[in-house]
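Q: For a teaching session next week I want to show students how multiple molecules come together into a single three-dimensional assembly. I've collected the sequence lines for a complex. Could you give me the predicted structure tokens for the whole thing so I can convert them for display?
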Amino acid sequence: MDAASSLAAILFFPSGAFLLVASLAYEWVDRKLLAQFQNRLGPRWFQPLADVIKLLAKEEVVPQGVNRWLFVGLPIVGLAAPLTAALYIPLAGLAPVFSFPGDLIVTIYLLSLLTMAIGLAGSNALGRFSLVGATRTLTQLFSYEAPFLLALLGPALVAGSWQIGTITQVASQRWFILTQPLGFVVALIGLMGKLELPPFDAPEAETEVVAGALTEYSGRGLALFRLGKAVELVLGLTLVAAFYLGGVNGVAAFFLKTLILLLLVAGMQAVLARLRIDQTVGLWWRFGVLLVLVQWAITWLLRGAWR
Amino acid sequence: MEESPKTELFTVPIGPQHPALKEPSHFRITVDGEVVTDAFVRLGYAHRGIEKAAESRNWVRNLYLFERVCGICSHIHATAYCLGVERLAGVEAPPRAQAIRVLVAELERVHSHLLWLGVAAHEAGFDTLFMYSWRDREAIMDVLEGLTGNRVNYSANVLGGVKNDVDAAQRDAILRAIDGLEGRSRHYLDVVTTDALFLQRTRGIGVMTRNQAEVMGAVGPTARASGVTRDVRVDAPYAAYDRFPIMRIVETGGDLEARFVVRLRELFESYRLIRFLLDNLPEGEIRGRMPRRVPEGETISRVEAPRGELFYFLKSNGSDTPERVKVRTPTIYNLTSVVKLVVGHQLADVPMILAGIDPCFSCNDRSVQLDDTDGRTRVWTWEQLRRYSLEVEHGRSL
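A: Of course. Below is the structure for the complete assembly, covering every listed component.
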């Protein structure tokens, strides 16, 4: 791959500009679906874009007592990390832009960086809501991250590779949702925990801690964090679809499969009430980890039969 | 600041402006991690001087003033005031008027409880229930608008009777709305008693024993959820509740779930009473004659607002304006229990427990104490009070 096409892949397609547009579109679909489930009208199609533009145009208030560099820098890290992770993910049904053995681990680390950045941003501020929100964000990180990682490693185990491209190829020959249903459930719900969607929105529960870790953020910083989350929604859905729903070969399959997953995610957001942070931790470590370990044990035992 | 910065760090201020509060009020929650160790409440951010304002308005104008004490249960305030003034004047509203008062009061209770259900669900992060219950509440708002001309502050009462009669078309509209709502309410009762995730947030949370409820003077559905058999409609029937009795709904759980169940079960009792009222409305006048001046004397008036017992004290000096009106709303009785109950719970439970009493802050922000240091009490005129409030508000005098 020469330099020009690499640059085009990073800046425009399938990463970069295309990804940003897709994330805003997916955010809209999510919001619209949730609104329809709740008997509301929901936003118009350009609303996520309008939100970002509005936030970018607004003044960014830097509160007293924060580390300025961290305050300004963390949102950039928060958006850059998922954008980097996108390079290793089969977006739009195409092969990943870059690939090397073990890129799955790097991708998962990069996807966690956003949550880390949000947690740090909250701890950086002096407001109590930010601090409580940051504590909850990081607590939640420790609860869903391990089960989510293990759930994604299930298909990797069968494929015998830690390279996303190879796993996707194996996954497109057999649907892992059929052979590893528990892993699929944990991965999808783990994704909701990662994105702090209801019922895992305790870190930003507005009736308790206002906006949680991001309470002090306005303008540019908030826009970048929101954009980062929207990007991560698309990446997460792509990963789960690629691993469990028979891979994403082709643009049509990519959109179809990720949108079906988004429908599931929006449905769960509508019917579930928010969990307290201690209940979230309990749920993940009591049931999430257990389920995924059972899945692993079954996979390990039957591995020979499937190959 | 008497506290050291270290302990201050773990004090979470909720209010006066906070997304969990729809009205201004201040709670200082001291937490150890996520667990609440202490709570402190400060009220008075929405004091409007209504009692003082009443002293410079005549008896009729005050009716509309007191209706504005509470935006949700406005009718019950006007009813309490009317019943008191009528007793002072020795006038009794005709039976049909009393029945219509009860009819509107029960419709108002339905709308208030559905509104509360939505707010409480929102505090629990269950926005779908919030949206659904508020959508269904619209049916009641439409009925009330058709009946009185207004969605809120209905002005159904006048001194000596009611303003509007109920005709056949309105009767049918009410029955249709009630029929639709009954099914929905049954569904909501199912949801709050069976939804596993929601029950995690309500069952065993904020438990108030019967003894605690009695000691802390809780009223209304909050007290009835703890097994206290206290309901003014049953204990001291007013208006038409003696001819159209209502059943007292009591639960013994004392937790948030019981508070949900009590309010939802009260809805069914209200539906039953509304149907019965519409079928058995007494014939006759809807207004009696009311003198302009009210004879000297004083009285109290107690009614059951959607949130609990509402208390009015009225004193007349024989002129066309009251000498003193004192209003005590149910929230102030119930609020003390919140500060007590949140200790030991998670921070996340605080908004839920607070919402559990169905607080209405601007209703209870009323009393202003004017004690000088020398023990002398002053009586301020309306003009003085107004000037004082502007000085405090803007730091300037008129």
